[in-house]
Amino acid sequence: MTNIIIAGGRIIDPANQIDQIGNVYISAGKIVSVLHQPDGFTAKLTIDAEHQIVCPGFIDLCARLREPGQTHKASIASETLAAASAGITTLCNPPDTQPITDTSAVTELILDKSNRINKAQVLPIGALTSQLEGETLSNMVTLSKAGCIAFSNARQPIKNSLVLRRAMAYAASHNLLVIIHPEDPWLSNQGCAHEGAFASRYGLPGIPETAELIAINQAIALAELSGCRIHFAQLSCARSVELIAQARARNLAISADVAIHQLAFSEDDIPIFDSHYHVLPPYRSAADKQGLIKGVAEGIINAICSDHQPHDIDAKLGAFPETEPGISSLQSMLPSALKLVAEQALSLSQAIASMTHQAAAIINHPGGTLAINSSADICIFDPEQVWQVNNDNWLSQGKNTPFWGQTLKGRVTHTLLNGSVVYCQQPLSL
Amino acid sequence: MDKLQLTDQGHLKHFISIEGLSKNLLTEILDTAESFAEMSAQKVKKYPLLRGKTIAILFFENSTRTRTTFELAANRLSADVLTINIATSATAKGESLLDTIRNLEAMHVDMFVVRHAISGSAYFIAQNTAPGIAVINAGDGQHAHPTQAMLDMFTIRRWKKDFSKLRVAIIGDILHSRVARSQIQALNILDAAEVRVIAPKTLLPAQVEQLGVNVAHDLETGLKNIDVIIMLRLQKERMTGALLPSENEYFNSFGLTRKKLAIANPDAIVMHPGPINRGVEIDSEVADGSQSVILEQVSNGIAIRMAIMSMVMQAGGQH
Q: Does A268 touch chain B if contact means CB atoms closer than 8 Å?
């Protein structure tokens, strides 16, 4: 572990209300000082961050790595490298791996492998029910001890409200976080697009807004009954934001995140039958998109995540309803967030906060801050650098992005994990 | 849609959807079909327009009427026709849609006529075929059935001449109907005075007004001042999804009987894309009555499909 100075960057650390040009000092993997040089500090490595932004490494609450089980789509190695190149130092992996993350063995496999590769910290989310079948509870305490940081049923429904009630009550007894992907399976009815003008015009099976609202209302009522701390993952409707604000006004422990691409697109932006825009929950109306952005700006939505879902080429090659949903989005997260900043929809500090300490708080993670003695997980990015999404620059194994071939603005130049440089755009000169 | 369907000169190279086509182009299709219809009345019905061309008719979903009229149309244009029912063919064995298309391309097919149960399939095939190969959509999922819509426009024009004065009612399962979506687009492009849909709310898509229609939920108000009545086929499986209580109740509310027909204008014509469910959406008395043009629609289907096939082949040749 070497002493490092990150020199001359604009330091933005929303957790500590810092937005100032200066240096960050790192020793033995930890931040030892910000702005003020410690006595006798000499650095082996100085990273020039002039004209760049230095902020805590991003904490991504939902990114699928496809390992174990679907390494034809992606792997822990490929996706943690892509994460590092995107300034993401911690990412949470949902339990719909193959086999499903409902045993200590799978949890440990993910942790062992990601620790060995050491490009980003991977935190497994455990299955809330065995095999995600929505029938019996998983061994939550055992899984928690093995390293699962929260529990969810991913996008698999728990149709029986009694099972969900008991899952929440059990989680609450052990102070475990339950993550809900809100969607009523009966109303969503295997739809593939927002039930609105776009789906009506192209004859696509629609998912009504109500599918999300009913699931949110149900989960809030059950959380109130069980005293469980719940987190809503990847909201898609403006009215969902209202429901969460109302519940929080009653002092319920409820948090929420939104996928970055839901803040970038609405149903109006979908080119005819373009499967790269097939996501779940679907892109909804322009008013929904605005409502979600407002939710982030007002702090009702705590975090922005990537909702990264890398796919192989075949998964997206077909008629829209037959293709697999999801986009590869680790590397477009920062540029998309910066676009919202450029459009003055969010302040830079808000955008960074929602990807760092506010996300960390949800999972009780100590990161997302540049506080003294915290682990030196740091992202350095050039907000003006323009780059093209192509095979040279796109490190995720999943090329399924609507941005393919396009030019994005804002690029990570360095990422540090525990004080080690895990990504560097240009080779470092020591 | 325009970029995919039209050449740089604005000619039709694929026919996937009515969406985005101009009034002039739709009129050109109708006029071309008119000349083929006149020729079909003659003793020798075969023309050498597509001689030496190979047309693959790919049906991933069963249909007798549409498939037969496409085959007849292709035969009358002297093309070599290959009909493949995929339900009993390779994709049933796990071959992908794209592989099926690639294999047929390797056999130097010039045109695909595609029927598929999934919305967007024809669009996907057109996007992925080699340049110079034309794709005609013979119905994809709930998205579009543009040749059916055009043969309906052809039939309407023969009876009513001027679209601008016409009020057209489409009755039945709009939600699941690719035919209705294409008809609504065609009628709006041809400047029909009004397109009205009549159905219970369970059979209407979300924000249906945005498709360019007025909405009624009963025949009594819906059929007033109507010049053209288009009945849609009610699929039996609609009863299982809690969309409708029973065929009987549906017929009582939305079935076209002589009495209900009398609400419309006296010279209104009755249309149906077929096959008819007698006693479910339409009474036999009306289906076989003097105002019905249902069988004429079937004959017109051949002329329209000849017109579209010859037009896309010509555009392909210029390209």
A: no
